[in-house]
Write a structure and sequence with these properties.
The chain has 305 residues and is α/β, with parallel strands linked by helices. The protein is 43% helix and 17% strand. The protein binds 1,3-dihydroxyacetonephosphate and iron/sulfur cluster.
Amino acid sequence: MNTRELQDEIIRLKKEKGVCLLAHAYQSQDILEVADYTGDSYGLSLKAKESDAQTIIMCGVRFMAETVKVLSPEKTVYIANSEALCPMAQQFDLPRVKQLRKQYPDYAIVAYINTTTELKTGVDVVVTSSSAKRIISNMKEDKILFIPDSNLGGYLKKQLPNKTIELMRGGCPTHMRVHKGDVLRAKKAHPNALVLVHPECLAEVTELADYAGSTTGIMNYAKESDAKEFIIGTENSIVQHLQFACPDKKFYMLSKECVCHNMKATTLMDVYQTLKGDGGLEIQLDDDLIKGARRAIDRMIELGG
Ligand code: 13P
Ligand code: SF4
């Protein structure tokens, strides 16, 4: 089978089995083309909740599939490639959160969605990169302990000067490979280009950017802007997707190093095999875990709008 035949077969199987296929924006172009919904982690969470399909296949990383299961426990949820894990989600665990509660008794604990389901049972609210600013500013609490991404947390701290935000050391190993020197080099090579970056990048990078936002935020900004050239500081698949979406504009990588091997683990063949019942992994979470994590995820949706 070639790629097009495989895509046709995936579309046929999805219809026959009533499956909804969700793909994070960092997935490859051939997967995005057959997905029912593509977007950032906030958008994927909402879509999963709204979908009528009984079975959902997530192309992304494990915490995304687990979030879908927490929001829709009655649905059968698969991750298309069981090896796809977010390394940032392994940096903090529930015992550490319990210890932080004792250390910071008068702080609300806000966790980035890139965390384990177990950790989410111990925090006050979950946020994503596109919803964090809105959620934290809507919270009645003024003292916030933000985990685990100190780069996104530092970015929020600057955006929300009325809140006291404490940070812990953690972050995305992919985005932290990009440095100030990469921005200066790219700007010199493409002086007319706007620099669009993800807030998981180091402060020395976001400070030099024209825009910082989620994967969907970056894509919408580039599509809607009158500018013709853009330097993209997030996972490099976004450069390719934008080039497909806007063939009249030019997109450049901020750094060749900005590749997430976990996001890249899933292939079109994984999607096909999961649909055939011959691959992927069904997400199984026990009821107490779902109930415990649901509180902070529901609060994300309630405050995030
Ligand atoms: P988004 O919320 O922008 O999709 O980010 C998720 C992620 O893992 C970025 O590295
Ligand atoms: Fe995790 Fe970073 Fe990969 Fe996103 S890009 S999934 S935060 S390692």
